[in-house]
Amino acid sequence: MRDAGEKNVTASAGRNELPARARRKRAGNGAARPDDADEVGLDALVGHAGYAVRRFQIWIFQDFVRTLAAVDIRPTQYSVMTVIGANPGLSQMAVAKRLGIERARLVHLLDSLERRKLVKRIKSKTDRRSHALHLTAQGELSLTKFKQLAAEHERHVEEKIGKANRERLLQILAGFT
Amino acid sequence: MRDAGEKNVTASAGRNELPARARRKRAGNGAARPDDADEVGLDALVGHAGYAVRRFQIWIFQDFVRTLAAVDIRPTQYSVMTVIGANPGLSQMAVAKRLGIERARLVHLLDSLERRKLVKRIKSKTDRRSHALHLTAQGELSLTKFKQLAAEHERHVEEKIGKANRERLLQILAGFT
DNA sequence: TATTGTTATACTCTATAACTATA
DNA sequence: TATAGTTATAGAGTATAACAATA
């Protein structure tokens, strides 16, 4: 059981096999090529989790951006505000570590959120190198709205892959959060 | 059943709830903050598929790059070579469409692969605007090696999330390939 | 010496627009 | 006029290195 089906990582699997139609087209005529995307076989890519995950991630981020376009908030900005909201007083290093963002990049993200009066940096009294991060009053209010829109986005995901599959996905990937 | 558990998209779920220890730390003392990443709660992010998928995708790409570092091939380069190998004669537009890559970006990817003698552009006789893409003999040979390493990477994924989970993931996301 | 926040650089990737040569 | 390939630009994101202030 454990050793079965190892080969199909690199072998073409049934569903995405190059369609017979496309094969025929090219067989008799060197010039004819498939012009429709669905006639192009993916070969080994079919068996790669990373390829599927990347395509899905692109879709999901685009839907997130689209759904929150009215409030002009991108996924990373949302994650930063959510973590600060749940852990007020956090340092920049702590946020960066928790979210896997480079601390250099977080500087710019916070600059932008601070300009928009959603987040504020407060000098720490115990360690004067670091900043305590807080949402502003407006930030708190805005985050509530962002979370509503993010929940709407999440429903789009559910519609796209199904409620049970979405939950299974969260379970499978829980270790990476 | 269909309407149950809708709220937990924005509510903190059990597993990633802010630990009592961290909450205690901050309760009596405004200055104390969680310094360890695992003491920082994620709040609404826990319920977002996009967040888990993004973190997983980062891990999986890093492992792919690491595993294929000896041959200096990145995920996108691998996907381009695999599709050309399986569909020789394809135009740049067809490859770009199939993989969801901007055609402007594919130009640079192909420049790089062509410099390395892995891929060649051949002027089409039927449509002089377009190029027929082929692997070189060396490209064919190299791709075989790349596929072996990619299969090794895929085994890392299996070790990380489990064989059954990896297969379930591929099933759930099959529609995005 | 080490760490926090910052600035800077380089490279990948996404998203556009515009140009050329064909069709 | 539309399309294939190309060039260019701008912004997000990743990966580094180096610096000042502070620990």
From TrEMBL, chains A, B:
One Pfam family this sequence matches: MarR_2
Organism: Bradyrhizobium iriomotense
Alphabetized SMART domains for the sequence: HTH_MARR
Matches recorded under InterPro entries: HTH_MarR-typ (IPR000835), MarR/SlyA-like (IPR039422), WH-like_DNA-bd_sf (IPR036388), WH_DNA-bd_sf (IPR036390)
Top-rank taxon, per record: Bacteria
SUPFAM superfamilies in the cross-refs: Winged helix' DNA-binding domain
Name of the protein: Transcriptional regulator
Segments forming domain HTH marR-type: 39-177
Coiled-coil ranges per UniProt: none
